[in-house]
Each structure stands twice: as C-alpha cells, then as structure tokens.
Write a structure and sequence with these properties.
The chain is mainly β and 177 residues long. The chain has three helices and 13 strands, in the order E-E-E-E-E-E-E-E-E-E-H-E-E-H-E-H. The strands form three sheets. A nine-stranded mixed sheet has the order 1-4-3-2-13-8-9-10-12. A two-stranded parallel ribbon has the order 5-11. The protein has a two-stranded antiparallel sheet with strand order 6-7.
Length: 177
C-alpha cells in the first residue's frame, strides 16, 4: 500500500470512491450494490470505497403483462437485500446459467432480482437499456462476480436502486430506514 500507515491516523477516514477494473475485482465481506436506474449503471462497492462499475438493463418504463400479471415494469426505487439464489429453467430470460439472485424488501421475497439474459449482446448494444420486466439484467461476467459476492457475504447483500445517483458511495452506506 505504498507505505501508507492507517495506524498513524487518530480516526479512520471516510472511504473514497475508487474505480477498480473488472479484472482486478475480488468479492469481499460487506460488499454492497447500488443501481442507478436512470443511467442503467450498477456499482459494486467495498467498504473501503473501491468500486466496480458495470452496465445494467432495468425495467421497461411502462405497463406490461408478463407471467400472468399486469403491472408497471419500471424497476422500483428501494433499499433491498439479495437473500436467495435460484436456478431457473428458462434459459432465455435467465441466461445460459439460469442464475437468479432474488431481492427481498421489508423481509419479504419479491419477484425482482439480478439475472443474465440469453441474448446479452442485443440487450446491451441498444440504448436506452430499459428492457427488463422489472429485474436488473447483467452480463455473464458480472453475474459471475455477483454470484461470488453472494457466497462471500453468506447470502446477504444490501442493494439500493434509485433513479438518478450522484454519489453511489454515500448511498451505499447511508443509514437504512
């Protein structure tokens, strides 16, 4: 760490947002996820402020009818937790692996979560990326990282989704209501 000693500081300093390349990212205990549903960007954040930024596709900003329900497919703005992992049989909607990291809100399971999509090139090449039925779609490599993060964090990852984010680090560690 370039000779920097934290022991010399009387109080720990606040973390500073530092972007880390995907090739250097390693999951850590305490990681958090912030998703800007306006810019369709995700941020995986370590406690020390190191951050992996990645593209996401979020909910279509309109009403849809899907899996027997009609609803507004806009990804909700909430503070959630990833608490479970499923393997889905639909390998188009949930991508080749079928992995689905389910989001919980107010201690209740929701139909929302993180997953891949079989035709990710098409999903991520077009703009805007408001294409899901409300879930947060990520590329395979990011799903691999989120899966590792889920394992390291023993099945619990705090998540914030918000439309428009100026400071993802502050939002990631804000007191939860």
């Amino acid at each position: 760490m370039l000779g920097v000693s934290l022991a010399m500081s009387p109080t720990p300093s606040a973390p500073v947002l530092t972007f880390v390349p995907q090739t250097q990212w390693h999951a850590q205990m305490g990681d958090r996820i912030v998703v800007d549903t306006q810019a369709n960007e995700g941020f995986l954040i370590h406690r020390n402020g190191e951050t992996l930024q990645f593209p996401v596709a979020t909910g279509q900003r309109r009403g849809v009818c899907y899996i027997g329900r009609c609803y507004n497919a806009t990804t909700p703005q909430r503070t959630w937790e990833v608490r479970s992992k499923d393997i889905k049989g639909d390998r188009i909607t949930f991508g080749p692996s079928g992995r689905f990291l389910r989001l919980y809100w107010d201690d209740e399971s929701t139909p929302y979560g993180f997953h891949e999509f079989a035709y990710e090139d098409r999903m991520f090449d077009d703009q805007p990326r408001f294409k899901s039925m409300g879930c947060i779609i990520v590329k395979k490599e990011i799903m691999d990282i989120l899966d590792q993060t889920y394992a390291v964090n023993e099945g619990n990852i705090p998540v914030v989704t918000k439309y428009g984010i100026e400071e993802p680090l502050a939002l990631a560690f804000a007191p939860q209501e």
